[in-house]
Amino acid sequence: MKKTVITVIGKDRCGYIASASAICAQSNVNIVDITQSVLEDMFVMVMLADISGLNCTFGEFSDKMRAFGEKEGLDVRVMHEDIFNAMHRI
User: Fold this and answer.
1) Residue ranges of the alpha helices (H) in the chain?
2) pTM of the predicted model, to two decimals?
3) CB under 8 Å, gap of 24 or more: what pairs does 31-37 form?
4) Is the pLDDT of residue 1 over 90?
5) Of the candidates 83, 78, 86, which has an alpha carbon nearest to the alpha carbon of residue 51?
6) Which pairs with CB-CB distance under 8 Å and at least 24 residues apart come from 83-90?
7) C-alpha triplet 70, 72, 74: angle, nearest 5°
8) What is the pLDDT of residue 85?
9) What is the mean pLDDT of the chain?
10) Phi/psi class of residue 43: alpha, beta or left (left: φ > 0; alpha: ψ in -120 to 50)?
11) CATH 3.30.70.260 at 3-89, yes or no
12) Residue 68: CB partners within 8 Å, gap ≥ 6?
């Protein structure tokens, strides 16, 4: 299984989870685990997702998530598991 970690941070508003999940579904990305919190008025979400069935390039998926973040005024980061694996080899 190839994995990615997706983080979403910004001012709280209804619909962020639905929007991020829809992009994942359209890209055939399976959300394996998700956690979200609202800290005062700030929304914070972390998703672990399986990208084994990704129907576009990882870059294209990352760009879709980034565009969602820009549209909503959110900081959205999509990090491939290879980043974390490389950090443990250093």
Assistant:
1) 16-26, 58-72, 81-89
2) 0.91
3) 32/3
4) no
5) 78
6) 84/5
7) 65
8) 73
9) 94
10) beta
11) yes
12) 19, 20, 23, 74, 76
Query: What tokens appear for 15 in the block?
Result: 């619909």
Q: Amino acid identity, residue 25?
A: A
User: Which own/partner contact pairs does 28-32 have at CB distance under 8 Å and 24+ positions apart?
Assistant: 28/53, 28/54, 28/55, 29/4, 29/53, 29/54, 29/61, 32/3
**Extents of the domains making up the chain:** 3-89
* Look-up of token digits 């579904």: 25
- Locus of tokens 């929007």: 19
User: Cβ neighbours of residue 76 under 8 Å, at least 6 residues apart?
Assistant: 6, 7, 8, 9, 20, 65, 66, 68, 69
According to the model, what pLDDT value does residue 83 have? 79
